[in-house]
Structures are given as structure tokens and as C-alpha cells.
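[09:14] KT: can someone run the structure on this one? pasting the chain below
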Amino acid sequence: MLLRELDITKTRDFLWKTINEQRNLTTQLVLKEEVLTSYVGLLAYFSMVRKDYTILIEKMKNLESEMIWELLSKTESNVLKFQGANNENYTSAMLGNALRKSSNGVKTSFLTKSSDVVRPIREVLFSIIAKPNSDILHSSRVTPKG
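[09:31] RB: done, C-alpha cells below
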């Protein structure tokens, strides 16, 4: 699009529209697959995990918002760098490479940050899984104090 029309604003708007369409599709898939409610059954037996799980979901939603804005910001910068470009000093591969580099950086950041966010609940769930069945049955009947 940028190569054909050399319109920075139109290119940026198209890119943002595409990114947000993909975000909406992902959100729909998460809802359809019931990803956010997949642990409800477990929480019924291990109520002590409920607070941690609720905090995890909130942190992941915040992280997703942070990362989408970072992606939009970086990709906008990528597009704006070609302001004033013409067919003699611009090829579509130049923008494509810049966008891939930015999106990969955001992806790497998301993977690192999401791993940090998930770590506490993962440790709790793994500690439950590692217990003998008798301990699991006993602890599932215990409700948290406080």
C-alpha cells in the first residue's frame, strides 16, 4: 500500500485497523474457547487459589492492553519513518522488515512479562498436582482463613 500510494497516514490506518481486527478475532476465540473460565471447576475445590487466579486474569488483561499499545506505537513509528519516501528510495521489504522487527520485540516482551505474571499461579497449581491424592482430597476441603 505504501509503495503504491506513498500515503503514510493511509498506510498507518490500514495497519492499525488490521492489528485491531486480529485482536478482536483473538478475543472472540478466547471467549468461545472459554479460556478465562477453564479453571472454574478447579477453583470450586481449591478456593484458596481463587484470589490468585482473579489477580492473574486482571494482570493478563492489563498486560495485553499494554502490549497492544506498544505494538501500535512501534508500528506507527515504523510507518512514519518513511514519510517523504518515493519509489526510488523505498521498497516494501524495508517497511516489512521494520514491522517484523518491532512485532518480534513486542512478542518477546509479552512472553517474558506474561511468564512472570503466570509464575505464581503456576507454582501453586504445580504444588497441588505434586501432592499425593489423599493430600489433594484433604486440602480441597479446607477453606482459606481470612
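[09:33] KT: thanks! The radius of gyration is 22 Å.
[09:34] RB: yep, looked fine to me
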